[in-house]
Amino acid sequence: MKRLWGALGLVLALSVFMPGDAAAQPRDGRERRAGASLGQNFPNPFNPATQIPFSVGDPPTCTDAGRQYRVSLKVFNLLLQEVATPVLQSGTSSVTGGQPLDKVLVPCGEYVAYWDGKVQSTGREAASGMYLYRLEVDGVPLVKKMIVVK
């Protein structure tokens, strides 16, 4: 009975964490909201590392090319505990790679983040299971799930 209540609590917690308008998912698997999109990580499932594609603004048109977007990307376990902050690997702009994606200002473009599969606080590899990754662009969240397999 405790597991049933625990599962119900987890579902309720996830419903608070996930964005409310998930019904309008495009067919390419990218979640789009307010001038940002979040792609599915690849490979998925993965071991030991993965890449996460995302875009800000409306590339390739970028009508407001001079605008800077505040971007954060975090990985969470299913208890909604922060596990890691992926780093920027590449992009279409002159923003340098290798920096953690925590409130980074980037111009309109397409980017790829990299997560080495390690828990930030311990440096150990993340356990097998499902994880959530959350992109926040100017306060607007986009969330997807990924799977680690050992």
Descriptive tags:
150 residues, elongated, 39% strand, mainly beta
Characterize the structure shown.
- The chain is mainly β.
- The chain has a single domain (29-148), classed as Sandwich (Immunoglobulin-like), CATH 2.60.40.
- Helices cover 11% and strands 39% of the residues.
- The strands form two sheets. A five-stranded antiparallel β-sheet has the order 1-2-3-8-6, with no helix packed on it. Strands 4, 5, 7, 9 and 10 form a five-stranded antiparallel β-sheet that branches.
- The radius of gyration is 16 Å and the shape is elongated.
- The chain starts with a helix and ends with a strand.
CATH topology: Immunoglobulin-like
Distance between the termini: 30 Å
Alpha-carbon Rg, integer? 16 Å
CATH level-two architecture:
Sandwich
**What is the top-level CATH class?**
Mainly Beta
Rounded average pLDDT: 82
Strand order of the largest sheet: 1-2-3-8-6
- Class derived from helix and strand content: mainly beta
Task: Give a quick summary of the entry.
The chain has 150 residues and is mostly beta strands. It contains one helix and ten strands, in the order αββββββββββ.
How does the SSE layout of this entry go?
Blueprint: H1 2-17, E1 31-33, E2 36-38, E3 50-56, E4 68-76, E5 82-84, E6 87-91, E7 104-107, E8 109-115, E9 129-137, E10 140-148
Antiparallel strand pairs: 1-2, 2-3, 3-8, 4-5, 4-7, 4-9, 6-8, 9-10
